[in-house]
Amino acid sequence: MIRHSATLAINEKLQAKRAAGEQVLHLGFGEAGLPVLPEVRDVLAGAAHRNEYGAVVGSAEARQAAAGYFSRRGLPTEADDIVLAPGSKALLFGLLAVLPGDVVLPQPSWVSYAAQAALLGRRVLGVPVPESAGGVPDPERLDRALTGARKDGAEPGVLILTVPDNPTGTLAGAELVKEVCAVAGAHGLTVLSDEIYRDLVHDSAEVRSPAAELPEHTVVTAGLSKNMALGGYRIGFARVPRPEQRAALVGVASEVWSSLPAPMQEVAAYVLAEPPEVRAHIDASRALHAAVARAVHAEFTAAGADCRAPQAGFYLYPDLEPLRAKGFTTGAQLAEHLLDRHGVGVLAGAEFGDDPAALRFRVATSLLYGDDAEQRWSALRSPDPVTLPWIARSLGHLRDALSAVLDGE
Ligand code: PMP
Ligand code: GLU
Fold it and tell me: In this structure, are 116 and 196 located in the same domain?
């Protein structure tokens, strides 16, 4: 049975509840709820006449701009290394289809990796993340798991890393990335590094890409869904340095999606050249994501949750183990209770491959910025967004819900 992806399913469910007039706090979906930069809208409008298919790999301008994007981030890249596609999700699927071997995942990790591996009939090996940060497996456990898996006849071939991470909202530090890559290299794995959140690191911490550690054996995917809040434009791109891997990916692309729509290639070329207004927009977005994620984190920790402090993007991964004493036995049961009784929508950790019995869940904080473009622009421009009435109200809703659940309601 092929399920509706948990992230998209909860979004549709919560939107329907809202449309029916219910008061719902939407913490279920990782959409970067921000308006489109006016200059981006203008580029798209000016490209509306572009109705040709174009090259499967992407336009020369967009590939050149994407190469510049990576090169400015310490990964020297040629335009030839780049493949654009409608969403990095499609690229991840195409890459999993062409890279051989069983798929190794950090536990927890984003919902679609395991689901895509299952669609492709591939075996998944989960390895828990360390305490310090998610998105990468604990290096020692990874080493043991790979050795054990080989003994059991498995053939681990691909390791997916998320730097920075969804669902934990953390960034694996440079040393940790190095250690994980050393293990991956020793076991001959190809690393698929999902860097879609790399521009949204809250402070100035260094993002160490696995591609800097294992340049010959790492493919990087990224996109404009998170940094520029353009999820619905579906612009993704991959850096695939090995020609044979690129050719195989392009083969899949040519049979499944043909190309990124031509008007979106123009948007990609414009954004990835990173003119000052684009940089300023991403800087403002990052500051807003950080302020709201920190405020939501404070609510959860005040309610007794164990939760890594947010370092990037717009996610938290709290553990509400103290609520086991109130009769909750699974994360899904707690998530259902939070929604049905308190109008708070979150996704249980089991959706991310975590232990179903754990009272952990993913909280996405990016849909708290407002219900319309005006509120969202105000949030982006505010020096203290958590004091805006609509954001403060949402934080109050969460506070009341958590204290009611702690009181056994
Ligand atoms: N990777 C991660 C970790 C994500 O959270 C998302 C969210 N959409 C994606 C990939 C896919 O993004 P897109 O297809 O919009 O590029
Ligand atoms: N990546 C986002 C999330 O984790 C939503 C979009 C998607 O899953 O495709 O909620």
Answer: yes
Q: Are strands 235-239 and 315-316 parallel, antiparallel or unpaired?
A: unpaired
Mean pLDDT, to the nearest integer, of 97-119?
98
Which residue puts its alpha carbon closest to atom 8 of ligand 2? 7
Cα(151) to ligand 1 centroid in Å equals 33
Mean pLDDT over each residue of the chain, to the nearest integer: 97
Q: Is 314 in the pocket of ligand 1 (CB under 6 A)?
A: no
pLDDT at 49: 98
Q: pLDDT at residue 235 above 80?
A: yes
pLDDT of res. 205: 86
Q: What number does the ligand 1 atom closest to the CA of 162 have?
A: 3
Instruction: Give pTM, 2 decimals.
Output: 0.98
Same domain, 284 and 261: no
Total domains in the chain come to 2
> Torsion over CA of 284, 290, 295 and 296, rounded to 10 degrees?
120
Res. 217: pLDDT tops 90: yes
Which ligand ends up closest to the CA of 29? 2
375 shares a domain with 303: yes
DSSP strands (E only) in 299-389? 315-316, 344-345, 347-348, 361-364
Query: To 10 degrees, the CA torsion angle through 360, 364, 365, 371?
Result: -130
H or E element that contains 323: none
- Is the distance from the beta carbon of residue 223 to the nearest atom of ligand 1 less than 6 Å? yes
Query: Which atom of ligand 2 approaches the CA of 30 most closely?
Result: 10
Output the CA 31–ligand 2 centroid distance in Å.
Answer: 7
* Model confidence pLDDT, tens digit, residues 164-216: 999 999 999 999 999 999 999 999 999 999 999 999 999 988 899 999 999 99
- CA 130 / ligand 2 centre spacing (Å): 23
* Model pLDDT for residues 35-63, shown as the tens digit of each residue: 999 999 999 999 999 999 999 999 999 99
Count of C-beta atoms within a 10 Å radius of residue 30 = 25
CB 67 within 8 A of CB 81: yes
- Give yes or no for residue 1 having a pLDDT over 80: no
| Residue 225 in contact with ligand 1 by CB distance below 6 A | yes
Mutate to test the pocket of ligand 1, among 10, 96, 225, 347 (most ligand atoms within 8 A of CB): 225
Range of the domain at 341: 6-30+278-407
Q: Provide the percentage of residues in the chain whose pLDDT is more than 70.
A: 100
Q: Is the pLDDT of residue 358 over 90?
A: yes
Does residue 87 lie in a domain region? Answer: yes
